[in-house]
Design a protein that fits this description.
Blueprint (H helix, E strand, L loop, with lengths): L3 E4 L3 E3 L6 E3 L4 E11 L3 E3 L4 E11 L3 E6 L2 E4 L3 E4 L2 E10 L2 E4 L1 E4 L3 E4 L2 E7 L7 E4 L12 E4 L12 E3 L9 E4 L3 E3 L12
Parallel strand pairs: 1-4, 2-4, 3-5, 4-6, 5-7, 6-8, 6-9, 7-10, 8-12, 9-13, 10-14, 12-15, 13-16, 14-17, 15-18, 16-19
Antiparallel strand pairs: 10-11
Length: 192
C-alpha cells in the first residue's frame, strides 16, 4: 500500500527474509536503529526509501533493493553482501519505471558493488547521484566501497551500470565523495 514505516531506533532482524518489505507506493524512513535481513530494505516497486542514520545490512543480497523506486541517503552505514544499493528500470503495470539513488552522506559498502544501476528495458533511465551540485566539493563524504577484488564482470566496482547495448540509459551524477573499488574499478562508466 501507500503507508509509511519509520525506524527511529531499535533492531529489525529477519534471518531468512527481507527485514522490511516496502509494498507498491509505500514509504520507508530510517532515522536510526539497526536493520538486518537477506535484503535489509526491499522495495517491491516504486516506493520511497529515505535514510538519514542507522545501520542497514543485507546479509545475503542487497542492503537496500530500491528496484524502480527512489532511494535517498544522507547518513548511516549501509552494507550488502552483494550490493549496498541496487536500483533498476522495469515495466510495472504496463509503464516503464526507473529507480534513482541520491546519496549525500553516509558509507555504502557492497561485497560485489557499492551501488548498482541496472536498466533492463529499452527506455529505462535509472540514475545515481553522489553529492550535491553546489560548487563545494567534498572528497570524503559520501563514501562508496566495493570490497570485491575479483576481475569478474560487474564485480569490484564502487559504482556499476548494467547498460547493455540497446537497453536503458542509466545516468550518473558525481559531485562529492569518494568511490573505492578493485584496481581500476572505481566506476564502470563516465559520470554524466
Amino acid at each position: 500500500g501507500t503507508g509509511k514505516t519509520t525506524v527511529a531506533g531499535g533492531t529489525v532482524t529477519a534471518t531468512s527474509a527481507n527485514a522490511i518489505y516496502n509494498a507498491v507506493g509505500g514509504e520507508v524512513e530510517v532515522t536510526g536503529g539497526t536493520i538486518t535481513g537477506t535484503n535489509g530494505i526491499y522495495n517491491n516497486a516504486n516506493g520511497t526509501i529515505t535514510v538519514s542514520a542507522g545501520n542497514i545490512t543485507g546479509s545475503t543480497e542487497h542492503a537496500i533493493k530500491g528496484y524502480v523506486g527512489n532511494v535517498t541517503v544522507s547518513g548511516g552505514t549501509i552494507e550488502g553482501t552483494e550490493d549496498g544499493i541496487y536500483i533498476t528500470s522495469a515495466v510495472v503495470g504496463g509503464q516503464t519505471l526507473s529507480g534513482s539513488a541520491t546519496v549525500t552522506g553516509g558509507t555504502i559498502t557492497g561485497g560485489r558493488t557499492g551501488i548498482i544501476a541496472g536498466d533492463t528495458v529499452g527506455n529505462g533511465t535509472a540514475s545515481i547521484t553522489l553529492g550535491t551540485n553546489d560548487g563545494n566539493v567534498s572528497t570524503s563524504s559520501p563514501t562508496i566501497i566495493s570490497t570485491d577484488t575479483s576481475v569478474s564482470d560487474g564485480h569490484g566496482y564502487g559504482v556499476y551500470f548494467e547498460n547493455r547495448e540497446g537497453y536503458g540509459n542509466a545516468k550518473f551524477y558525481f559531485y562529492d565523495g569518494i568511490i573505492k573499488g578493485a584496481e581500476y574499478k572505481a566506476i564502470s562508466s563516465e559520470p554524466t
